Amino acid sequence: MSKFNSVTAVMENKVMPIANKFGQQRHLAAIRDAFISLLPITLAGGLVAIISSPPVTEETTNGFLLAWEKFALNNAEVLNWVFAFTLGAMSLYVCIGITHFLCRFYKVNSFIPILFSTMGFFLLVTQPQELGFDAKTLEFSFIDGKGLLSAILIGIGTTELYRIMQQKEFGKIKMPPSVPASLSDVFASLIPGIVIIVGYTIVYAIFNSFDTNMAQAMFDFLSPTFKSADSLAFVIFITILTHIFWFFGIHDAALGGVMGPIRDGNISINAAAQMAGEQLPHIFTTSFWTYFTAIGGAGSVIGLAFLLIFLAKSKQLKNVGKVGVVPALFNISEPLIFGIPLMLNPMFLIPFLLTSTLNATISYICMSIGLVGKTFSMLSWQMPPFIGAFFSTLDWKAFVLVILLMILDAILYYPFVKAYDRQLTKRELESMAETDTKS
Question: What is the pTM of this model?
């Protein structure tokens, strides 16, 4: 126990302050908030991806599924167009979101910087195919998850350049007091805007001279890194790290600015591949994490909640289970984490780390060998995981897999629950005996 206390002290005094600063770092916080704010867009794109992908084969005879397939085929153009500007344009919205949230941190009006970011995004992420008077054709396949890194750099770079020039009053055109404030802001942004536009034009010209654009060049260069972030080793590492943070009371939002671009970018790429009828390239996505790894929230606590309800003799644990089971079914684990508690409780350290890690490992292997379909849509963090698993893959085997993983999680928690339940039951009986003696 003394060793555990010393580890706890190190986490509280050394790691937690660093993790909190990391989570509050302005650029990472802006990235995290931008991804969180995209929920309506990702939800709409996920629904379109599902509607466009009826689970039918040549042997399908079910009338509903065949009608679904007919609807998807008849409306393919509309569905593809809607998808292209929802989940298929994730990078564009992330760029806008980062600019907005970073401006809000600096207390700068975000409208003009958003205009410059959007202009820079289209200049550096899309590729002109035809620029005639009657028509302008762009190749914009990198505005989905493949262009996320460029979108992040453009959003941050634009905001920082604009802020610095504004603070230094670089090229500021001062207007008489009688001029409306909105018009004064426009004139004050003229020179900074010209500098930013010229900068992005130079960058575009450099990449264009190599017959590419910034997004494609960065994606091709970093492809080995993206592949390693989709490996089983990385999934295990990030699962353990996240749950160590949770165990010591550090919310996984501290990692959101780093993990968001990876998981959300992968789901966007998978969704685009699904819409195109191609093989899905990625396993580690937002849906994989939500529905197949942290089943019921951090610690994968759905199975634990049912154990407490049906097997615990301790009144405290039984009541916590009753309170926590419904939130856990909707991926909210805090009532159980803080009610049992799981946080800073050495009795539960092993199963708390082990359950989600095994969930991730088993699910990863099942998807990599084709036993279960990969995820391509993300509907909601609060959707029950066994339902979300099906809709994110349109594979009935995903539903079965998550149910089996929930049972496995309960089995892993069982011996630790029994031991802890005995401790608490003994304390409760002793407390009741003391009360009876006093009365």
Answer: 0.78
